[in-house]
């Protein structure tokens, strides 16, 4: 399904973004910084109302992020900021007290990009903890902690996975517990926001209320910005961003439920839908700690990318929305050999990357379920069985592949097999939601669909996250849940299952 596209120049003209604004949001030379400081004028107090974050970690680099917003829930989506550029200085240190500062720099927060900045810090040491903060005039941001990826194959690496955080369905209790973990990174697997109108029928978060601006389905860039601000107003989410660097991909709700490529399932014409996708992708870039390479060119944004030079772990981050073929019209269409959920270019990139990776563990961050469950789940990889066979064939030739997935609001641990009787070629760790669908329950109406398969080793429908620990010898995956999220954020943390996966022996051995 295709329609008229927006090229980069047209999109920048329509949106008012200049190439200079893009560059200055990453780094500002002295002359540009001086000009911005001269023109900035008075800046409201409380500009760091959305916190700080880091992301896209490499073995020697990381991206820092903040978005200036003294009034994050201002109805116009501009966060209470004046319509002019504001200089932002940053510093990176090896200690929380900033006694040893190793990097200083500046960027310019422009209104064209919602006063966000994305400086990339290079030349850092592998596997090392750092601390960072921002300055605007005399205002100082909260301190964030970040860490580079290890280059040493003998290192230990621990990360948590999260997804699906419908703020209006419940409290972000899981993040309250996640920040107490010993973490090197957080991998977020999609549905950072939801585009639906927030009304009395779906506002299940006790004690919460919203203004009328939130009671409409998102259509504009300003509405997307406001929705990110609403979700980011949660203190536990801000704390989770400040805890460790995030590796982020998207699923569908960053634009529209169950969309694929240029196709809307709600009757929006392709020539109109690409405009919605363009502003959704733009807001994603503005509000998350991703590098400048993820900035959209019109309705196109490359978020598939890899992190890690080898050693213990390499992350391969996928986009299962932007390039997929339309949902199948019948079984014959569904089983066509040329169907792809990734698109030809991304498939080639992934398989080449897996084949060339020297890492002990190859972690694939993915939006929707890979394991075969039922043939009518066509929005998942079940709708693209030929693409799944190609992926599993590539995984079979890869060192210790692990797929991470979100989307379904359930905890699932599954072994990935070319067919049910074949040995596993990898494992899939599916994390439940942070809040989407409210409290949830251990079992539900979908449980039989999943547990009918011997390769599915766990199914639990409560909220939480997955904690993963990698060493050269094994992977340990711990599925954490909280019993409730709707009433308040006080629920305790429980571990419902622990698995080990020995290096070189794909499978899931249950420990508890």
TrEMBL record:
Alphabetical list of Gene3D superfamilies matching this protein: PhoD-like phosphatase, Purple acid phosphatase-like, N-terminal
TM region positions: none
Domain Phospholipase D N-terminal as annotated: residue spans: 50-148
Residues forming coiled coils: none
Positions of the PhoD-like phosphatase metallophosphatase domain: 159-479
Entry keyword set: Signal
InterPro entries: Metallo-depent_PP-like, PhoD-like_MPP, PhoD-like_sf, PhoD_N, Phospholipid_Metab_Enz, TAT_signal
Signal sequence region: 1-34
Record's protein name: Alkaline phosphatase
